[in-house]
Design brief:
- The chain is an alpha+beta fold.
- It has one domain.
- About 15% of the residues lie in helices and about 30% in strands.
- It is built from three helices and five strands, in the order ββαβαββα.
- Strands 3-2-1-4-5 form a five-stranded antiparallel sheet, with helices on both faces.
- The longest helix has 14 residues.
- The model has no long low-confidence stretch (mean pLDDT about 90).
Length: about 180
């Protein structure tokens, strides 16, 4: 192993993770996926106890898993949903952004604020165990988050097939 001056290395810190709730976030990155016609939007928490959670997580681990991600389709059949997203951005960023003025340059969305309601959902890990993650469930304005004008959704449970029960045996069917 190479020689390292360990007294100069800080120990990794465990981060408290944001849970279900309302947060004021800002867009930190946007990726266009043109062949599938959607934007992948990365959000980081902009205020409060978890401010810059994604950035701090990335600085600590080198991974971008601390950012909240949401997908916004701009396929023909989803244009009204994308328009609602742009409307949320306009209401959240008065004087900075207008839906009508959006020219399709997704990079201009970086830095804009949104009110975001996170919910929790179960998922199956690669080893088959069940984990819990937070996911964007609703967009709103930062003012509505500040006012507490939102509902935290119930945890979304993973659909699992009911455990198979053995068939009931009728004593009359036994040969003895």
């Amino acid at each position: 192993m190479k020689q390292i001056n360990w007294k100069d290395i800080d120990e990794a810190q465990e981060f408290a993770r944001p849970g279900a709730g309302g947060y004021v976030c800002h867009i930190v990155d946007v990726e266009d996926v043109p062949d599938k016609e959607y934007l992948l939007v990365y959000l980081d928490i902009a205020e409060g106890e978890f401010k810059d959670y994604g950035k701090k997580y990335e600085e600590s681990t080198g991974q971008s898993w601390g950012y909240q991600r949401m997908y916004r389709s701009y396929k023909e059949k989803a244009l009204n949903f994308f328009a609602a997203f742009l409307g949320d951005l306009e209401r959240s960023n008065p004087g900075k952004f207008t839906k009508a003025g959006f020219d399709g340059d997704e990079q201009k969305l970086i830095g804009l604020s949104l009110g975001v309601v996170l919910g929790q959902e179960e998922y199956e890990k690669q080893d088959g165990s069940i984990g819990v993650r937070t996911a964007v469930k609703q967009l709103t304005t930062p003012q509505k988050i500040h006012d507490g004008d939102f509902k935290i959704p119930a945890m979304k449970k993973l659909d699992r097939p009911a455990t198979q029960q053995p068939e009931a045996i009728n004593d009359a069917d036994l040969p003895f």
